[in-house]
Amino acid sequence: MKIGLGTVQFGVDYGVSNKNGKTPAGEVESILAVSRELKVRVLDTASLYGDSEQVLGNCLPAAAGFDIVTKTPQFAKPVLDADDAERLQQAFYESLTKLNCASVYGLLMHRADDLFVPGGERLMAALTDLKQQGLVAKIGVSVYNAEQIDQVLDRFAIDLVQLPISVLDQRLLRSGHLRKLKLAGIEVHARSVFLQGLLLMDLSEIPAYFAPVRNILESYHQFIRARGFTPLQAALGFVSGLSEIDRIICGVNNVQQLRDICNAAGVELDCAAFAEFAIGEESIVNPALWRLEPGKP
């Protein structure tokens, strides 16, 4: 199964289309049980996702068989020192305790730019040390753009990258960076494939912030309807059709959403057919830059 389970909703209210808030613990248990049933192996979490790690640790049986990927704290300092490297490792040990597990599949730098300031190599050395101890199988980074990928590959040996890609956000496909990562033998996990649910929303519900690209969204919906695809099938099928993508990280709020995603995941579409819907403006394709007015459609 190419689908991986994003768990940010287990720890915080998240997503432009999420009307139900944080997922209750009982529902989390059901989601994890169905994930095992559907052979969804990867769980993606982070120390910054509220209490997501703790919720997972409380809900996961001791031998759940999942590949857990978590992330470091953010540092956001102009210079990093030995104390920061120690903080990274201490935060990871705390993550293991919360997750109730002895090791994890992946550990990613949550903020890739932390690696590029003076002393950033200390953080990568700390990651490498955790891997050498057998506490982490794969180390890597979470990135937002091509420049970060280039800087990481120029300086460090990594195993895993998490990156954004969707029908609207085709930047890393067009720039050749997906291909570059695969040629380097790096595992690639895709996130933001629904753009926090924007690609799944009815046009009448799309926030006013996206008015500058509404014509593109309308054309996209007409395009997929004409071909008999649901928004879910189209969004997943575009990413599934990319051979460079190893896992597609999808967040869910309930069991039905998980089943729907896994049922739709078998559709693989020709990504070239979606080229006209690519949007280059980062203010649209990077949810971190969205400025949505609460309560306004």
UniProtKB/TrEMBL annotation:
**Which Pfam families does the UniProt record give?**
Aldo_ket_red (PF00248)
Under the heading InterPro entries, the entry gives: AKR2_Oxidoreductase (IPR053135), NAD(P)_OxRdtase_dom_sf (IPR036812), NADP_OxRdtase_dom (IPR023210)
Superkingdom per UniProt? Bacteria
Record PANTHER family: D-THREO-ALDOSE 1-DEHYDROGENASE, NADP-DEPENDENT OXIDOREDUCTASE DOMAIN-CONTAINING PROTEIN
**What's this protein's name?**
Aryl-alcohol dehydrogenase
Source organism per entry reads Methylomonas koyamae
